[in-house]
Each structure stands twice: as C-alpha cells, then as structure tokens.
C-alpha cells in the first residue's frame, strides 16, 4: 500500500526548511497577516491593468507595499530602462534577481528594470519580493548574511497573501513562430511554492481554497499533491 501513498512534491530537506521557515514567519508577523486577504492575479485585486511606464510601476509598488505593511513614505523606486534580449530559436534561462533592494539615507530603494513591465505577473512578483526584503532586512528581522534570505523572502510573499502571483511567476514558458523560451524567476521552485501554499491554506483552515483556481497548472498540481500528502500525514 505504501507504493500508492501520497508523496511530498519536495525532498525532505526542502520540506523541513519550508515547515520551519513558515512557522518562524507566522510567529514573526502574526496570525492576522496569515489570515489576511489572498491576492489573485485579477483586475479586482490589481486594477491598474498592464503597466508600461515608470509612473505605473511606482503606483503598483505603493499598492503592494500597503498590502505588505510597508509605509509608502519609507520606500523609493529606482526605475532602470532595459531592453529584453533578442529571443533565440530555443532558449532556456535562469533569471536571478529581476529587481534589487538597497538602503540609501534611511530609505529603502527598490530597483526595477524596464523589461519587467512586459509581463504583469513577473512585475508584481518582483516588487513583492523586493518589498519582502524591506520587511526582513530593512526591519532588521534577519541579518544581512543569512544564507537563506532570498528563498525566505519568496516564502514571505506566501504568508502575506501574494503567493499565487509569485508561484505563477516562478517559471515562464512562451512559444511563438520565432521559437520558444523558458525562464525561471526567483529562488523557490514551483514544487516549493506548491508545498508552501498547501501549508498556508491548511494553516488558514482552507483544505480546498477557492483562490487555488488562479494558480498556473504546475504550481496548482504541486499544491494539490502537497495537500494530499499533508492530509495523510496529519
């Protein structure tokens, strides 16, 4: 019967890291944050539509900042124009930091590159991740040299209700008559997001959350797999 038992979508070390880090984030930021609103990639939750200008990016940054408990007066946008690289016939890439965070004279400066505006989901995920640094590094909740600060910042977006968007942005595949391109964004994998979102939904008392329908195919499948596994393990 063990052959048919539900399995975790992540290996044991990643599962343990998610469980421990999730518990720490809940203790650090409180139950009210975890039980807050889940933000879906819809016009209702992100009404500004397609963002193509520096002013639009700034407005979106302030919107996400308020939802993550960051005072808009404590942050500034550094918008750097950039052009996407020409698409090759076949291309696979890993993209690390699509944005950047640093402090300057007491202000948290969020750098965003212009080509991030091409995909709204990627832009929202990038801003959420960088604003997560404000909550963790800027508020001195973790040291600058913490080795897992980047994936912890990804996980923070789940706790603050933005995990649907950041999970959807974790992997991107596009294809047209010029070829195809796949790209990873961020530090947590789709499998890790799936497990983290399952843990998040169960903590909220939502064994079948309605917001899961907004997840892309892969993270939704991994979340369902993790839910089956966690139900069995309970």
Mass-distribution shape: globular
How many helices? The count is 8
Distance between the termini: 18 Å
Mean pLDDT across residues? 86
- How much is the radius of gyration in Å? 18 Å
For the largest sheet, list the strands in their spatial order.
1-4-3
Main sheet attributes: strand count, strand direction, barrel closure: 3 strands, mixed
Order of helices and strands, N to C?
A: HHHEEEEHHHEEHH
Uncertain spans, ≥5 residues at pLDDT below 50? Answer: 86-96, 173-184
What's the gist of this structure?
By secondary structure, the protein is α/β, with parallel strands linked by helices. It contains eight helices and six strands.
Overview of the structural elements:
- This protein is an alpha/beta fold and 234 residues long.
- Helix content is 44%, strand content 16%.
- It has a three-stranded mixed β-sheet with strand order 1-4-3, covered by helices on one side. A three-stranded mixed β-sheet has the order 2-6-5.
- Helix 6 runs antiparallel to helix 7.
- The protein is globular.
């Amino acid at each position: 019967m063990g052959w048919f038992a539900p399995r975790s979508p992540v290996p044991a070390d990643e599962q343990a890291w998610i469980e421990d880090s999730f518990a720490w984030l809940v203790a650090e930021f409180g139950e009210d944050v975890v039980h807050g609103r889940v933000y879906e990639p819809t016009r209702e939750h992100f009404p500004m539509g397609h963002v193509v200008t520096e002013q639009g990016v700034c407005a979106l940054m302030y919107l996400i900042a308020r939802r993550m408990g960051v005072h808009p007066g404590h942050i500034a946008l550094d918008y750097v124009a950039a052009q996407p690289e020409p698409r090759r016939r076949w291309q696979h890439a890993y993209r690390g930091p699509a944005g950047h965070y640093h402090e300057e004279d007491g202000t948290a400066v969020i750098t965003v590159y212009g080509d991030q505006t091409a995909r709204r989901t990627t832009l929202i995920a990038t801003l959420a991740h960088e604003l997560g640094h404000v909550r963790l590094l800027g508020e001195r909740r973790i040291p600058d040299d913490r080795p897992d600060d980047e994936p912890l910042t990804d996980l923070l977006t789940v706790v603050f209700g933005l995990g649907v968007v950041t999970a959807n942005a974790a992997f991107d595949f596009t294809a047209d008559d010029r070829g195809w391109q796949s790209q990873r964004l961020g530090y947590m994998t789709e499998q890790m997001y799936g497990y983290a979102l399952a843990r998040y939904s169960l903590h909220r008392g939502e064994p079948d959350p309605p917001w899961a329908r907004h997840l892309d195919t892969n993270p939704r499948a991994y979340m369902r797999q993790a839910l089956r596994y966690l139900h069995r393990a309970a």
